[in-house]
Amino acid sequence: MYTVHVDEARTRLSELMRDAVSGEEVVISQEDGSAVRLVPVAKKNRPTFGSARGMFEMADDFDAPLDDFLPYMK
Question: Which range marks the domain in which residue 5 is found?
């Protein structure tokens, strides 16, 4: 872990981000004592097309008219 002043962080942001992503704990501080920790954000994985193949089965008559709706379909 290392601490960097906010003024220095402005000029070294790319380097600080690279360190944080690689697992280093980076703290950015100000004169008044307040500080923040720079942490990486997890990437959102996009769903892979076809990844659920074989997990679901659809009935052969899934699109057949329902008996409950026959009076409304006349």
Answer: 1-40
